[in-house]
Design goal:
Elements lengths: L16 E4 L7 E4 L14 E3 L3 H10 L5 E2 L6 E7 L5 E7 L1
Amino acid sequence: MSGRGARPARQAHGGRAWWPGRGGGSRGAEQGGSRYRPPARRAHPALLVSDLAKLVARLGKAGIRFKPGKDLEGYVRGDIADPFGNRIELMQRV
């Protein structure tokens, strides 16, 4: 496959494909493999939304549970989980 490069030594485990970052740097992306990985709880994406209350209402109607987050100055926030159990943080500036 074009664009596929040599893995960094720390990523030398088998079963996954490695695509290096721009300029052949150490950043890259892994894909594939059949090993089970538990859902991410700490490392997670955070999405900035314009109307958290409205989104939470829509999510509730779709059966998606929202867990309010801890206070953070300037934001109201909370978490949902993707279908695999990975945490996704939703934030709104106040």
